[in-house]
Amino acid sequence: MAALLASFAAPLARVAVEPRVARPIFHLAPTAPRGWINDPNGPLLHNGTYHLFWQNVPNSSEWSWGLGWGHATSKDLVQWQPQPVALEPSPGGLDRHGCFSGCATVDVNGVPTILYTGVIRKAPEEMEPGGSHQHEAQLLAVAADPDDPELKEWVKLPGQFLPQPPAGMHLTGWRDPFILQTPTAGSPWWYVMVGAGLKDKCGTALVYRSKDLKQGWEYVGPLCESGDADMHTMWECPIMAQLSSKPPTSAAATSNGHAASHVNGHANGHSALHSDGCSQPIGRHMLCVSPDYCVNVPLCYLGSYAAGRFDMAAASSPQRLDLGDILYAPNMLTDDQ
Asked: Are 35 and 61 contacting, i.e. CB atoms less than 8 angstroms apart?
């Protein structure tokens, strides 16, 4: 079951609430570590325990450099237990000025792994009009003890796991990695996208693939392409959800009156044969992006995705994920339901 975790939302349930505590009842509202929080990061279900991380600036009531990852665990997405900080900046490291947003997954050996963006502030002379305010690198951390149900300790791996974007792309940013695909019996590839923007053009995400989560990544290309100014200049925290589809035996009338079978929501059961030699169904997906800055509402596109490409030309017009004006950088997980 795909569940959106925007602004730390959780299902309603009957829970014991201490009287006169002015705090949300059905939302994760961390009390430790104290300080600024934003962007839910890396929701993960591992060995029956839900893990949720978030951007945190300790001992501050406003955003600033030095962001780390707070961490809490739950058995039901309602009652949460605080855990030690999962990530914090490493002096002299590629994340010395902040551990920005990302995602979490479990590798083929059962080791929970965090993918995140490490940043180093640019000096004034390095700044470019319309460019990023920081140097950005995509980094990994793994659970020190994968059998610990609370995953209290995380160990950063050295170096960048993704190569820097190709030279000459003129990006507005390159951050917030998200796993698009994990290896299956039909394909050995991991796919990851990283939020980005093409300067003076539009927001996008850059896609990479590898047969090993920790190394060997190669650049595939943009997730999608469009010159539409409505796509903004930078996509932050992009996520992709595969939607429920009709059973393969279902049928729908086509324009010529004939019935067409559907597989993964695609008429005639089309599948795509990709450069890795693996045939993969083209599925119906929701692409959600947070454009430019937190004053903007996330936008959702419904369309087809396969092997690192989202068909933006055939996708639906963007819809607001929320009708309010304070929701930004939602996240999601898929559990065993």
From this structure: yes
